Amino acid sequence: MNKKEIAEIRKEFNKNDNGITRITGCYVDFEKNKRLDFKEAFYSLPDEEMHKYVDIMKKTLSGTLGKNLLNMEFPTEEETSEDGSQKFLYELVQSKLCDDALLDKLYDKIIETYNYDGEYLIILIHDTYDIPTITSDGVENFDASEYVYDFILCSICPVKLSKAALYYNRQKNSIEEHMRDWIVQAPANGFLYPAFNDRNMDIHNILYYTKNSDETDIEFSENMLRCTLPIPAKEQKEVFSTIVEESLGRDCEFEIVRNIHDNLAEMIAEKADEPEPVELDKEDMKKLLINSGATEESVEKFAETFESSVAEGQSFVASNITNQRKFELKTPDVTINVSPERTDLVDTRIIDGKPCIVIECNDNVIVNGIRVANPAE
Questions:
Q1: pTM
Q2: 3-state helix, strand, coil in the chain (%, to 5)
Q3: pLDDT tens digit string along 116-150?
Q4: What percent of the chain has a predicted confidence (pLDDT) above 70?
Q5: Which of 229, 162, 152 is nearest to 193 (CA)?
Q6: How far apart are the first and last CA of the chain?
Q7: Among residues 103, 102, 107, 99, which one has the least CA distance to residue 34?
Q8: Which one of 4, 152, 205, 212 is most buried, counting C-beta atoms within 10 A?
Q9: CA-CA distances (angstroms) from residue 280 to 284, 335, 339?
Q10: Rg (CA), the chain
Q11: If DSSP codes are grouped into helix, strand and coil, which group holds residue 201?
């Protein structure tokens, strides 16, 4: 799914007449026991309660594509085997969450594979979305809808005990201790199935959500969903840096690394309005190194390093492997942050036999809040 497709489904939850037919849930305690489960027609809920659930659904489709929202494809065997995860989820969609045995099986699968020590609430909704046609001028025409997107959205929400506090009791006109309650938090993980690719049902793919992109639950993804999780955002940066360092070796000089940063920033800026994030596979990264000034020998070394570090078919999201907000230089004792648009102000030189980082400055230099004189004046 791309950004526009995610936004279209997320917008479905903003409407009062959305197609949510049913909501179900299961509360799991810290010992992994099912404490309660519920099944409701969505519009039978009180308004305030309904709006709280809608907020959770929208959160499960929020964040950055390629970082918090990850597209994953089911392996072929998961679609054909009797106990395949894709086959099971498709049956769940077809049941419209009305099959208690399938629901219990899903809850058991999540409890078995979800890596969380505290208590949490599993929330499932079933929705039918009449896909409107898009006119030539970009307007949605619901009257011309030809297809229905039938899907489920699962949100897994931590439940935490509220902090002890004092509160003002208006009836008694007094300050009293507030009772601590178990509060359902924003979702930490979740998934949308089937994916909404090319603005239609794609039963072969799933959209996975993680609130913390640095702590994606590999066990849950691989054992519950049985999909290969893309390299987590933080790990992408680490793997990319390692590949570059090992490929360039002693040729990993400041100018080449700066060129890599500038070229990545340019690639991201050129496709800023595109619905898909900029991704780099092996060939894209090879071109990046060549365009950044890497030697032929380094590029050959890169091919070996990439294959030994990255699984087949995996790629890197450009925004995950470079910082668009700053250009950082770090030594054991000094950290320098430069505007990414002005990397040209930084250079390296040998001064008095010592390697130095040189920064061009003007007459507007401030040190600890004090404007200092320009030494060239």
A1: 0.83
A2: 35, 30, 35
A3: 889 999 999 999 999 988 766 666 666 667 789 99
A4: 96
A5: 152
A6: 57
A7: 107
A8: 152
A9: 5, 29, 24
A10: 26
A11: strand
